[in-house]
Design brief:
- This protein starts with a strand and ends in a 13-residue tail after the last strand.
- It folds into 4 domains: 119 residues, Rossmann fold, CATH 3.40.50; 78 residues, Alpha-Beta Plaits, CATH 3.30.70; 120 residues, 3-Layer(aba) Sandwich (Rossmann fold); 94 residues, Regulator of K+ conductance, C-terminal domain (Alpha-Beta Plaits).
- Helix 1 runs parallel beside helix 15 and helix 7 packs across helix 10.
- 33% of the residues lie in helices and 24% in strands.
- Strands 3-2-1-4-5-6 form a 6-stranded parallel beta sheet, sandwiched between helices.
- A hairpin with an 8-residue loop joins strand 7 and strand 8.
- It contains 15 helices and 22 strands.
């Protein structure tokens, strides 16, 4: 597809890379010459230097013949104006990054009146991810699927856990409806087979019914308990969206914000929560404010290093759940040995949201991918396919199919029933199937079969 991206900020760069890797024809519009040249040198894309809301610039970028135009600058109004212009010029689909809460609250009305197909809010999407991890606190990461399909959750195998030393064959005997989709071992990704041996400190990415997932965590030495109190450091936009999502719940919230004006504004916006003007990276402040007495600490400042330090301090104080906002994805692998629990990366979350939208649109034009999700620090894809009549994947039971290396079938969704397959199961036409791939981009289910 021909896609024009306006803005090469954090999200724009990630999207340029991801969409170019899927062989889409990408044109970047960026007004900063240095940023523009850097991105063009990094990825196989073309570009136009200039103002993306300008008629001449959009015409030079070929917006009039584009399948999709996505505006991702840090200016909400500019993004909306550019998207409206792009649609008038002939772009089939348009999307705009809009972070302001006033606009987000009116997104459905504005989508209709401005004819913008997709409103993208990184902080709101990240806040929803925070909410998932708070509602299922046992998981280090949690990837949900549409229509209440089983999620994929992350579990770090504890030292002394009953899971250590088990092969996947034994694992499946103990947990009939759980599938280990992939394993991260010492930073290496493995799509495991039955003879794989689970060891302490392995990160397992598992799918299955919630009741069995809870049992799995219990066997790993983790007890299920609801999060009833949040201690948030950093009163920025992400924190505000998190507070708003929990506003009508019984969850107690305290916020530490160093900036006087921000703390005052936050206190006015949310009079029912406690806002303290203090430095959340100071262990003495965290102790004085009783961080250890809260069920979860959310480190949501704008500085990655501060957030990492805050989570480390919270962990040392005995807080059972920490969420750490990290903007730079390259930092995640570096801090892996530290043992951070749940990491929130807004630019990656919103990039995945856009990719899902692009894939859905691409599907309507011939691709068979219905949805795309990423797990294991975005190194592994979980793809949803609909099984077509005559597919090679339906010819034999799964144990007889020659499936490509680093590909696994997580589960089958058939007539409102979820099947966690064994080798005796087989795919049927009209099934929906979740495929795990560490083997590059798949556009058709038949590509998993050799």
């Amino acid at each position: 597809m021909k896609i024009v991206i306006m803005g090469a900020g954090k999200v724009g760069k990630v999207l340029c890379r991801d969409l170019a890797e899927e062989n889409h024809e990408i044109t970047l519009i960026e007004k900063d010459a240095k940023t523009f040249q850097t991105v063009l040198n990094q990825y196989d894309i073309t570009g136009v230097l200039g103002n993306g809301a300008s008629y001449d610039t959009q015409m030079e970028a070929g917006v009039n013949t584009a399948d999709m135009f996505i505006a991702l600058t840090d200016n909400d109004e500019l993004n909306m104006i550019a998207s409206v212009l792009a649609k008038k010029l002939g772009a089939v689909k348009t999307g705009a990054r809009v972070r302001n809460q006033d606009y987000s609250d009116l997104s459905d009305l504005m989508r209709t009146s401005l004819d913008i197909n997709l409103f993208i809010n990184p902080e709101l999407e990240a806040a929803r991810k925070c909410m998932q991890l708070i509602e299922f606190p046992l998981a280090d990461s949690f990837e949900s699927f549409a229509n209440n399909k089983p999620p994929i959750v992350e579990l770090k195998v504890s030292a002394g856990s009953n899971l250590g030393g088990k092969s996947l064959i034994d694992f499946r005997s103990s947990y009939k409806n759980l599938i280990v989709c992939c394993v991260m071992k010492n930073g290496e990704i493995i799509i495991p087979k039955g003879n794989f041996i689970i060891e302490a400190n392995d990160h397992l990415f598992v799918t299955g019914p919630m009741s069995e997932l809870v049992k799995l965590y219990k066997d790993n030495g983790q007890q299920e308990s609801k999060i009833r109190s949040l201690f948030i450091i950093g009163g920025g936009l992400l924190a505000q969206y998190v507070i708003k999502l929990f506003e009508k719940s019984n969850v107690t919230i305290k916020v530490l914000e160093l900036n006087h004006d921000k703390a005052k504004l936050l206190s006015r916006q949310f009079p029912k929560i406690e806002v303290i003007e203090a430095d959340g990276t100071d262990i003495n402040n965290l102790r004085e404010q009783g961080a250890a007495n809260y069920d979860a600490v959310l480190a949501l400042t704008g500085i990655d290093e501060e957030n990492i330090i805050i989570s480390m301090i919270a962990k040392s104080l005995g807080v059972k759940k920490t969420l750490t906002k990290i903007n730079r994805t390259e930092v995640i692998d570096i801090v892996e040995p530290i043992g951070l629990q749940s990491v929130i990366t807004p630019k990656r979350i919103v990039s995945d949201t856009i990719l899902q939208y692009v894939r859905a649109f691409f599907n309507s034009q011939g691709s068979n991918v219905e949805a795309l999700y990423t797990i294991a620090h975005d190194q592994v894809e979980a793809l949803q396919f609909r099984v077509k009549e005559g597919s090679k994947a339906t010819l034999k039971p799964l144990r007889e199919l020659k499936i490509k290396k680093d590909v696994l079938i997580a589960y089958i969704y058939r007539k409102n029933q979820t099947i966690f397959p064994t080798g005796n199961d087989r795919l049927m036409p009209h099934d929906r199937v979740i495929v795990i791939s560490y083997n590059g981009y798949l556009s058709d289910l038949d590509e998993i079969v050799l």
